[in-house]
Amino acid sequence: MPVRKEIDGSRSVPAFYGKELRWKREKAGRTLKETVEGSYFGTSYLSEIERGQRRIPETLASHIDRALETDGFFARHCEDVRNAKPSGHADYFAEVAEAAWRARDIEDWDPTLILGPLQLEPYIRAVVHAAHPEDTEEEVASKVAARREYAGRFESTTAPERWVVLHESILKQPIIGDDEMAEQLAHVAALARRRCFVPQILPVKGRAHPFMTGTTRIMTFCDAPPLVYVEGMYSGQTIDDSGIVRRYQKAYDRLRAAALPPEESLAMIEKAAEGYGNGKHPR
């Protein structure tokens, strides 16, 4: 029988409430399975919440309050957990950052930038400077470090399966120097070659397509409902309405159909990287 691991509630806000949840569940004499019975969520999902590795969704919090008779305690404090964020990430992105790591599949689209988890430090720094010109060097360094740490978790074959569609204009409009852009695109291509994600490029000459504007991420899970995340310049929104999520999923299927095949897309990325490296800009 595995050794029970104690929870350090001082580590984070999610860990604090996760520890409290375990205490109240065990006091009520309920197992993980008994506690989630009647909800959409699985026992592994609840276990990760108790260990502070997931943030508790409002629907599950309300279910737990009913199951454990906790008088609305967890539903009332959902916002505390939701507002807690790791250093270096925007408030609205913290929950998505955690959810993405636990997803089974991820489908991404970005019309203007190389996707965050594929970015190297020079690219991240340029994006941060452009969006937050008032930041101090210390604040920029914190954001760069946090984003690279987050990205590193997806540079593994054990990460969630990921499909990424990027607009061709991203390859032709560098936001960093040519040598840095060459290294950045070579990095993207190398990750694709290692099967860390499947790339597709949407051609500049393509016709109208879904997702004409806005960064979008669709996440599916083994033990929870799917989520859609859409992001603007200084805000982001998570969508869990099943009907709307389904419309995003169907739109993403049409987007993939409009994009170039993965091998052709990868060859285009590698050619662009080579072009920046030898001074033959693919603009």
Structure, briefly:
This protein has 283 residues and is an alpha/beta fold.
Structure description:
It is a single chain. The protein has 283 residues and is of the alpha/beta class. The chain folds into two domains: 13-83, 434 Repressor (Amino-terminal Domain) (Orthogonal Bundle), CATH 1.10.260; 103-278, Endonuclease, Chain A (2-Layer Sandwich), CATH 3.30.870. 49% of the residues lie in helices and 12% in strands. The protein contains 13 helices and six strands. It has helices at 13-27, 32-36, 43-50, 58-68, 73-76, 78-83, 94-101, 121-131, 137-152, 169-172, 178-193, 242-258, 262-278; strands at 105-110, 161-167, 198-202, 215-220, 227-231, 236-239. A six-stranded mixed sheet has the order 3-2-1-4-5-6, with helices on both faces. Helix 8 (121-131) crosses helix 9 and helix 11 (178-193) runs antiparallel to helix 13 (262-278). The mean pLDDT is 86.
* Count of spatially separate domains: 2
Mean pLDDT: 86
Strands in their spatial order, largest beta sheet = 3-2-1-4-5-6
* Second-tier CATH architecture of the largest domain: 2-Layer Sandwich
Gyration radius, rounded: 21 Å
Strand content: 5-15%
Domain DUF5753: 97-271
Pfam family, one: DUF5753
GO molecular function, one term: DNA binding
Keywords: DNA-binding
Layout of strands and helices, then pairs:
Blueprint: H1 13-27, H2 32-36, H3 43-50, H4 58-68, H5 73-76, H6 78-83, H7 94-101, E1 105-110, H8 121-131, H9 137-152, E2 161-167, H10 169-172, H11 178-193, E3 198-202, E4 215-220, E5 227-231, E6 236-239, H12 242-258, H13 262-278
Parallel strand pairs: 1-2, 2-3
Antiparallel strand pairs: 1-4, 4-5, 5-6
